[in-house]
UniProtKB/TrEMBL annotation, chain A:
SUPFAM superfamilies, per the entry: Ribosomal protein S5 domain 2-like
Gene Ontology molecular function terms on file: RNA binding
PANTHER family, alphabetized: EXOSOME COMPLEX COMPONENT (PTHR11953), EXOSOME COMPLEX COMPONENT MTR3 (PTHR11953:SF2)
Record lineage: Eukaryota, Fungi, Dikarya, Ascomycota, Pezizomycotina
Localization in the cell: Cytoplasm; Nucleus
BP terms from Gene Ontology: nuclear mRNA surveillance; poly(A)-dependent snoRNA 3'-end processing; rRNA catabolic process; rRNA processing; U4 snRNA 3'-end processing
Family affiliation: Belongs to the RNase PH family.
Coiled-coil region(s): none
The name this protein goes by in its record: Exoribonuclease phosphorolytic domain-containing protein
Keywords: Cytoplasm, Exosome, Nucleus, RNA-binding, rRNA processing
GO cellular component, one term: nuclear exosome (RNase complex)
Exoribonuclease phosphorolytic domain sequence ranges: 50-215
Species whose genome carries this gene: Penicillium frequentans
Predominant cellular place of this UniProt entry's protein: cytoplasm
TrEMBL record, chain B:
Exosome complex component N-terminal domain residues: 8-43
Top-level lineage group: Eukaryota
The protein, known as: Uncharacterized protein
Coiled-coil positions: none
Transmembrane segments: none
Keyword Cytoplasm: yes
PANTHER family, alphabetized: 3'-5' EXORIBONUCLEASE CSL4-RELATED, EXOSOME COMPLEX COMPONENT CSL4
GO molecular function (one): RNA binding
Keywords annotated in UniProt: Cytoplasm, Exosome
Location of the Exosome complex component CSL4 C-terminal domain: 82-182
InterPro entries: Csl4, EXOSC1_C, Exosome_cplx_N_dom, NA-bd_OB-fold
From TrEMBL, chain C:
A GO molecular function held by the record: mRNA 3'-UTR AU-rich region binding
InterPro entries named in the record: Exosome_comp_Rrp42_subfam, PNPase/RNase_PH_dom_sf, Ribosomal_Su5_D2-typ_SF
SUPFAM superfamilies given in the database record: Ribosomal protein S5 domain 2-like
Region Disordered, annotated ranges: 96-121
Stored Gene3D superfamilies: GHMP Kinase, N-terminal domain
Protein's UniProt keywords contain Cytoplasm: yes
Signal peptide: none
Family assignment from sequence similarity: Belongs to the RNase PH family.
Full protein name: Ribosomal RNA-processing protein 42
One BP term from GO: nuclear mRNA surveillance
CC annotations in GO: cytoplasmic exosome (RNase complex); nuclear exosome (RNase complex); nucleolus
Length: 325, 236, 392
């Protein structure tokens, strides 16, 4: 009998050639960090209700039945840093993602009969998408995003028109949003805020790709994010957090709570809601009787309406293009 | 409610009220209004004067060149490109058993134009699909992506159903035109060929040559001259 | 594929016929007075049996069994781990603090000083859920674990503005900080002992809550920035979530408590808590709402809301008599007239089931959250009930 050497099996992908197991980050010296202090940090230059511009185009991948590509406008500080680079580290990042829809195609033989369309979603970060490298195997946060996205889309699809068939929706995130400014230590309100922006982008792009694949939908779904942020340095007791739409986490010192919705404007309905964080200390304008979480949801819906205008225009444009060609 | 229709619609766009139109493919009804459910050009099929029905609004899946041809048809409307009951499909035989033949559906033909060359659904290149599917080398490569269907022995022809011998009707690799009779179970649709215009449309002989039909139950090899039994579809 | 499909919507859809679904929906959506299959009131929970501290090998543990036979066990384990500061978690502020304080720095300052020190990291809490019949990387366990972890690490304790030492500044994350170089890592392992008969979220969340309430950490004997060492007397160990003691006058409503996640569904105009499998199958909307005690306002605080895909979207539609070939001629004209369902805006024929489609109106969500949060509402009732379970 052949004796095989004992190989320590690790939880990584054995079908690929992996990089070195340890971190290989260059050393960053304290003096350097001190120079890049508050002055260099990204600041929000938009109004609280002003959204970033979105680039969205459908039908870019010919082999898929539907596809779309979405990009957020880089923040002003990132654009400035690209013009005149002061540091190796970019101050913030901007979302870029590609979405493909394959199908409708028959369900696999093992699957049970379904009178409805079966939607499968995969969300994957490219290994280089975030500051920290992601592996090739989907991790918990990517699976979590996939479930959120599926909930958002399933409410919009008219599934009974496509019996016995399934579609696969795959999103590759090429550049993700940061959870906070890179040089900030995580504070007590820290959470994966960047993921919420990513989800909003995924929803908008996926809706465009599904419409591009001519799958029957009740309405387009657009994703939007709103957050309660406190930007003051030092103690946060002096001013209370304010509501902002389409927040870039790198531009704020602390995000108290955030909310992402998938919203269908024509029906005024929400198919997916994900709210987290402590919204109890928010200060709304006087006379605003809404509670903080309601204001957050309304804010996210407003942001989604903004994304919808881009989504609708992009789709109309692609329809007109196919008619004219 | 506006009476002018937008030239193109996107999902969720309100097209008109159910009082004025009836909803066709590519639309859905919500709160007594017709909304688009896919993106594409809006077409109002004029009402039929005899029946006095409302005109039908639909959003087309295809580009305008073929809209005219399609709207001329007053047949049953289809909502999507999947095989549905009564749709005519072209399929390739993948397995022949005593009681049934297994086929894999290549193309769902538009009801409007049953001539494959004019059919312009999402399978624009029907000709290329058929030739590549009739090629023995290309079998089993994309079967996973195609809908599977069964032709049961009793659905092969309308007469003498009990004398059907499946091996004399279909051979693996033949291209069949069939009509969907049922959505079937989890894995198979059910097809019938029990009509004159349904049956084998393309087949190769044992020698590997493309055959031509000589009768409703025989095809012949032009090179060797040998005949083979088949359930042949009436050629146009 | 099948596992994935089950996972994505709220647990497996029971095989109910369209007629059963329609019956359930109609009785659950009766205005103001829904009739539930098991006779509960809309806000009533299923009876359950709970116990704490059942596993001696853990820092805290709990078991809850529902009357239908589903049981869950949660074990909490804590390990000491060295805090690694990577370049992108460092900033100049924390660097200068570190050099200022030095070894003489008092341990207290670590928890009250800069936000960097109270911080703690969400990844220090690790949660894994095992459900029979699911792989651990299936969508359902991952989704549930993320949902519960997110509310755990997201709950931030009140500021110590009034000078009362509550020991929970910075919430659970802050509590895990030992000093600048060391922290606790918390492993929460959830075991569902039976096949999930209904969406297991309420069961798992309640069990986790109890296990965390009973979790104790050994008493720290070292001071400040020393390498930590602990008192080996288990009797003096401190609760992870500080409890009322004789010395300090605690108002029970002021204590920091682990969050609970409630499963709420809306059917028609009704809001129904702790739904069983049949009830979820006809829900218009399913929300998971996490709440905890607000230490400042003494009310309840909302931590997270997540929508869950209602399985009613995947059900098979019923066929109205007018379209049923077998009933041709047997139906009186006008018997099946579509009526507008005010809750969904869809036209439906009464008594004929149609799979739900579309989303939820904002007013419905607001109503669901309000029933959870309102004073004397379901959220407070649940937290009070869990408090009653004998701990320790």
């Amino acid at each position: 009998m052949l004796k095989l050497p004992l190989i320590k099996l690790e939880m990584n992908d054995r079908r690929r050639i992996n990089g070195p197991p340890g971190g290989t980050r260059p050393a960053v010296f304290a003096s350097h960090l001190e120079s890049s202090s508050a002055a260099d940090r990204a600041r929000r230059e938009r109004q609280p209700t002003e959204l970033r511009k979105i680039f969205l185009k459908t039908g870019l991948i010919p082999s898929a039945s539907g596809s779309s590509y979405l990009e957020f406008q880089p923040s002003a500080s990132l654009a400035a840093a690209r013009e005149t680079p002061k540091s190796l580290i970019p101050p913030s990042s901007a979302l870029k993602l590609a979405c493909t829809v394959h199908g409708p195609k028959p369900l696999p033989r093992s699957a049970a009969f379904s009178p409805n369309l079966v939607l499968t979603t995969h969300v994957k970060y490219a290994p280089f998408a975030a500051r920290k490298r992601k592996g090739h195997i989907r991790d918990a946060s990517e699976r979590d995003l996939g479930v959120h996205l599926e909930t958002a889309l399933r409410g919009a699809i008219i599934a009974e028109r496509w019996p016995k068939s399934g579609i696969d929706l795959t999103i590759t995130i090429l550049e993700a949003e940061d959870d906070r400014w890179w040089a900030d230590a995580p504070d007590s309100h820290d959470a994966s805020w960047g993921m919420m922006n990513v989800l909003a982008g995924c929803i908008t792009a996926a809706s465009a790709a599904i419409a591009d694949a001519h799958i029957d939908c009740l309405d387009l779904v657009a994703g939007g994010v709103a957050a309660l942020v406190s930007d003051d340095s030092g103690d946060s007791s002096t001013t209370s957090p304010r509501l902002m739409l389409d927040t870039d986490p790198a531009e704020h010192r602390s995000i108290m709570s955030a909310c992402v919705v998938a919203y269908m404007p024509a029906r005024d309905e929400i198919t997916e809601l994900w709210l987290k964080g402590d919204s109890s200390k928010a200060a709304l304008e006087n006379g605003d009787a809404r509670s903080a979480h309601e204001a957050l949801i309304d804010g996210a819906v407003d942001a989604a309406r903004g994304a919808y205008s881009v989504l609708g225009d992009a789709l109309r444009e692609s329809v007109l293009q196919t008619i004219q060609s | 409610m506006t009476t002018t229709l937008p030239p193109v619609a996107i999902p969720g766009q309100c097209l008109g009220s159910v009082a004025m139109y009836s909803a066709g493919p590519g639309t859905h009804i919500q709160q007594s209004n017709i909304y688009a459910s896919i993106a594409g050009p809006v077409v109002a099929d004029p009402a039929q004067p005899k029946t006095g029905t409302k005109s039908t609004l639909r959003v087309s899946r295809v580009v305008p060149a073929t809209i005219r041809a399609a709207s001329a048809a007053n047949q049953k409307q289809r909502y999507n490109t999947l095989p549905a009951v009564d749709s005519i499909v072209l399929a390739r035989v993948t397995r022949v058993q005593k009681r049934q033949a297994t086929v894999s559906i290549l193309v769902v033909l538009d009801d409007a134009s049953q001539d494959p060359s004019q059919n312009a659904s999402d399978n624009d290149n029907v000709a290329s699909i058929l030739t590549s599917a009739a090629n023995p080398e290309n079998h089993n490569s994309t079967d996973e992506l195609r809908f599977q269907a069964l032709i049961r022995k009793e659905d092969v022809r309308a007469v003498e159903k009990d004398r059907v011998v499946m091996e004399d009707m279909f051979r693996v690799g033949d291209i069949v035109r069939g009509s969907v009779i049922s959505q079937g179970d989890q894995s198979f649709y059910y097809l019938t060929t029990a009509r004159n215009d349904l049956g084998i449309v393309m087949a190769r002989s044992d020698a590997g040559n493309m055959m031509f039909p000589v009768s409703w139950k025989e095809m012949r090899d032009p090179v060797t001259g040998a005949g083979e039994p088949r359930k042949v579809a009436r050629p146009y | 594929m099948t596992a994935q499909r089950q996972a994505s919507s709220a647990a497996q859809t029971p095989h109910l016929s369209a007629a059963e679904l329609s019956y359930l929906y109609t009785s659950l959506s009766l205005p103001n007075n829904p009739i539930r299959p098991d006779g509960r009131s809309p806000t009533q929970f299923r009876p359950l049996a709970a116990e704490c501290d059942i596993l001696p090998g853990t820092n805290g543990s709990a078991r809850i069994g529902f009357a239908d036979g589903t049981q869950a066990i949660v074990g909490v384990k804590a390990e000491v781990e060295k805090t690694t500061l990577t370049a992108d978690t460092l900033d100049a502020r924390s660097l200068s603090l570190q050099s200022d304080l030095g070894p003489s720095g008092d341990g207290r300052e670590g928890t009250e000083g800069s936000s960097a020190a109270t911080g703690g990291h969400g990844s220090w809490v690790q949660m894994s859920i095992e459900i029979p019949g699911f792989r651990d990387d299936d969508a359902l366990p991952v989704f549930l674990a993320e949902m519960m972890r997110e509310s755990l690490v997201g709950s931030v304790g009140g500021k110590d503005g009034d000078g009362i030492e509550r020991g929970m500044a910075g919430g659970l994350k802050g509590r895990l900080v030992i000093n600048k170089r060391w922290h606790w890592r918390l492993y929460i392992d959830v075991l569902l002992l039976s096949q999930p008969l209904s969406y297991p979220l309420p069961l798992l969340s309640l069990t986790t809550h109890l296990a965390l309430l009973s979790t104790k950490l050994p008493k720290l004997k070292s001071q400040g920035e020393e390498d930590p060492f602990f008192d080996d007397d288990w009797a003096v160990a401190e609760y992870l979530y500080p409890r009322a003691s004789a010395g300090l006058k605690f108002n029970p409503s002021q204590q920091v408590r682990p969050p609970v996640t409630l499963l709420v569904i809306s059917v028609g105009e009704n809001v129904i808590f702790d739904p069983n499998r049949e009830e979820i199958a006809v829900a218009d909307a399913v929300l998971a709402i996490s709440v905890t005690r607000d230490t400042e306002s003494q009310g309840l605080k909302l931590l997270t809301i997540r929508t869950i895909d209602p399985p009613s979207r995947l059900t098979q539609p019923g066929v109205p008599n007018s379209e049923n070939v077998n009933m041709l001629g047997a139906t009186a004209p006008g018997e099946s007239v579509a009526v507008l369902n005010p809750a969904t805006g869809e036209e439906e024929i009464p008594g004929v089931w149609r799979p739900r489609r579309g989303g939820v109106k904002r007013s419905v969500i607001a109503g669901m959250v309000k029933t959870v949060l309102k004073k004397g509402g379901v959220g407070e009732e649940v937290l009070a009930g869990l408090e009653g379970v004998q701990v320790g």
